[in-house]
Amino acid sequence: MDAGLAALVGAAVGSLATIGAAWVNGRATARSQFDQWRRRHRRDAYANYLSALHDRDIAMGAVLGALQPETPDLRDVDEKVHRFVTLAREVHRAAEVVILEGPLSTVESADRVARASGDLSSVMRRMVEHAHAGDSSQKAADTALATEREHALYQAVKNFRAAASDVLGNAN
Fold this sequence. Notes:
- This is Proline dehydrogenase.
- The protein has helices at about 5-65, 75-100, 105-135, 140-170.
- By secondary structure, it is mostly helical.
- The protein has one domain (about 40-170): Up-down Bundle (Four Helix Bundle (Hemerythrin (Met), subunit A)), CATH 1.20.120.
- The protein is rod-shaped and about 105 Å long.
C-alpha cells in the first residue's frame, strides 16, 4: 500500500472513530440532561405534595383543637372544616402529580399517606358530627384515637419523605 492510500485510510478510520465518539458522548449528554430534567420535575412534585400535606395537616389540627372545649363553637369548627376540605383537595391534586412522576415506590408511599390521612379524617368527621349532635360521650375515646392516627400519619409522611429522597438520590 502506498503512503497516500495509507494516509487516506488512516484519516477515514480516524474520522469514523471521532464521529463514533461524538455520537456516544452526545447520547450520554442527552441522557444526563434528561435524568436531570426528570429529577427536577420529581423533586418539584414531591415538594409540592409535602407542602400541601403540611398545610392540610395544620388545618386538621385546627379542627381537632376547635373540638376540644366542652362546648365547641360550632361555627368556628365548621369554618375550620371548610378550610381543611379545601386544603385536602390541594393534597389530592398534588398526589396526582406524584403518581404521574413516579416511580412506583413513591406512588405506593403516597398511597399509604392517603390511607393514614383518611383514617384520621374519619375520626375527625365523627368528632364533628358528635359535636353538632351535642354528644360528648365518645369525645375521650375519639381524641385518643385521633392522637394514635396522627402518629400513624406522621410515620407515613416520614416514610414518603424517605422514599422520595431515595428516588432523588439524596439518601443519607
